[in-house]
Specification:
single chain, 246 residues, alpha/beta, Rossmann fold, 15% strand, binds nicotinamide-adenine-dinucleotide
């Protein structure tokens, strides 16, 4: 069984849909977890840091808080999902300001967190960073799935997640010899009460015949945070039930 005993793990967006499952799963594997989110939540046994991680000073404050309290950071998961209120608009309706804000808040905050935490981990000589990407960071969107629903796949999402996948590769080549590992996880569609018509189409297309469960992403995250993945570096771990192979 994957063991995160004695590890100090920070999970950004740790109070969201996937993040809260990651927090639970990492705790269950023995880690001490700090959930860092713009929204606060009371939860027994989970250390909460509340702040906006698109702000450089807040990222620094989070790192200082964890180092001061625990003395080290073994793992960091960039999982937060900042987005504008008009997120999900159809492509012709996306204003240039909205595009820039989303790239800035999402991709650039992952850069900020990576830049700051990896320098701390370099001083320690060890650490694992996991960046949440998506199958839509390396595949075009299948718009036929969304017909008859209000759902779509924003163009900025593809650009942001593609950027995060390749930033991860860059960071691995930069920091690998310092004993650090940086990987991405690219989930496929995770079931979250989407419209039935969408779910049916998704299940039909997916080789495994179903959408993913949030716990399947949390277990993959635990693997990359753990020493079981000690020779996995710069990898994009695709957790999509085979969606992307056809
Ligand atoms: N849910 C999926 O099916 C799916 C699929 C592929 C990839 N992903 C990726 O997984 C990650 C998590 O997605 P989710 O579905 O759990 O999203 P979510 O919206 O449920 O959770 C995101 C969390 O991030 C927090 N957050 C937003 N802005 C923040 C900020 N500025 N600073 C700090 N925290 C902030 C939110 O408060 C929230 O708790 C995202 O990166 C997303 O792109 C999700």
């Amino acid at each position: 069984m994957i063991n995160l005993n004695n590890k100090i793990i920070v999970i950004t967006g740790g109070n969201g849909f996937l993040g809260s499952e990651m927090v639970r799963e990492a705790k269950q594997a023995g880690a001490t977890v700090v959930s860092a989110d713009i929204v606060s939540k009371k939860e027994n046994g989970v250390d909460q840091f509340t702040g906006d991680l698109t702000e450089p000073d807040t990222v620094k404050a989070l790192i200082d808080y964890v180092i001061e309290k625990y003395g080290k950071i073994d793992g960091w998961v960039n999982n937060a999902y900042p987005r504008t209120d008009d997120w999900g608009s159809k492509l012709p309706d996306v204003s240039y300001d909205s595009w820039k804000s989303n790239v800035d808040m999402h991709m650039n905050s992952y850069f900020l967190c990576c830049q700051q935490v990896l320098e701390k981990m370099k001083q320690q000589g060890s650490g694992s960073v996991v960046n949440l990407a998506s199958i839509y960071g390396f595949l075009g969107a299948d718009f036929s799935l969304y017909e008859g629903t209000s759902m779509t796949m924003p163009a900025a999402y593809s650009a942001i997640k593609g950027g995060i996948i390749n930033l991860t590769r860059y960071l691995t080549s930069y920091y690998g010899k310092s004993g650090l590992r940086i990987n991405t996880i690219s989930p496929g569609g995770i079931y979250d009460n989407q419209p039935e018509i969408f779910v049916d189409r998704y299940n039909n297309k997916c080789p495994t015949g179903r959408m993913g469960d949030k716990n399947e992403i949390a277990r993959a995250t635990n693997y990359l945070l753990s020493d079981y993945s000690s020779y996995v570096n710069g990898h994009n771990l695709v957790v999509d039930g085979g969606w992307s192979v056809i």
